[in-house]
Design a protein that fits this description.
Length: 176
């Protein structure tokens, strides 16, 4: 009996150690951080968001302080601009609509190097949400070592996935 228990315990230790070692090889889920989120969008959001597929979303990469300040104003943030080391990090400004009774809350974020995507998983929504459109923005910070190859953001909410191409801030700021 003791021998069987010892064998089972040894197997469990090996399995747990193997799982822990595999987790260390994977990229850290903390390679993206939420910097800001408000219920505002650019005044020309609907125009910008209808110029790309899928409509109703916009994702913009910012790589320098001048672009950061310009996009902060364009997205109509009310607070002061936070200090971000843009030599080490890129920022992604995201705009979309949500239900006013079921606001989006980011659960997890992770850079997927193979698919060149930043995956943003939202917390589950309430069962009964109103069908109105309320503005929502997010600013996400990603280290340049992870962000340089990204070409899209994948939003995951309750079994629904929406892939949005990333645009550069210069492209957005020069649009009429």
């Amino acid at each position: 009996m003791k021998k069987s228990l010892l064998i089972i315990m040894s197997c469990l230790v090996i399995i747990v150690a193997g799982c822990t070692a595999q987790e260390k090889d994977q990229p850290s889920p903390e390679n993206a951080n939420l910097v800001a989120s408000e219920k505002t969008l650019p005044s020309d959001f609907e125009h910008l968001a209808e110029l790309q597929e899928p409509e109703g979303y916009i994702a913009v990469r910012v790589q320098n302080q001048k672009g950061f300040e310009a996009m902060w104003q364009k997205f109509q943030f009310e607070g002061e601009i936070p200090e971000i080391d843009l030599k080490e990090n890129d920022l992604f400004f995201i705009g979309m609509f949500e239900s006013s009774s079921c606001p989006y809350e980011i659960d997890t974020m992770n850079v997927e190097a193979v698919s060149k995507e930043l995956t943003v998983n939202f917390s589950p929504l309430a069962e009964a949400c109103t069908a109105d459109l309320s503005p929502r923005n997010f600013v996400i910070e990603v280290p340049k070592e992870f962000s340089s190859d990204l070409d899209s953001i994948l939003f995951v909410s309750q079994e629904q996935q929406t892939k949005v191409p990333i645009q550069l801030e210069e492209e957005i700021l020069k649009m009429p």
